[in-house]
Write a structure and sequence with these properties.
With 92 residues, the protein is an all-alpha fold. The chain has one domain. It is built from six helices and no strands. It is elongated.
Amino acid sequence: METNEKMIALQMYESRKLQSGTAWLLFLLLGWSYGSMNAMGKQILFYITLGGLGIWTLVRLFTLGGAIKDYNKQIAISAGLGADDLMRLGLV
């Protein structure tokens, strides 16, 4: 990939990626996590079931970090970044 193209891809990734701190803050204060990752149906279901009566919330506490990393990896791939870029960004 050309240097200019790589810079554009990195800029696109940086503008679209989910910030970990923001995602955690929204989850802890509002229970909002799936909506940030373009899964609005899951987010609505999460709210309707009151976080699976708390069980789904506990599970999400342990899986949110990995979900953020997976989401950002998909954003990086769709931006056109290669395997070496994914490694540099810590997404592999």
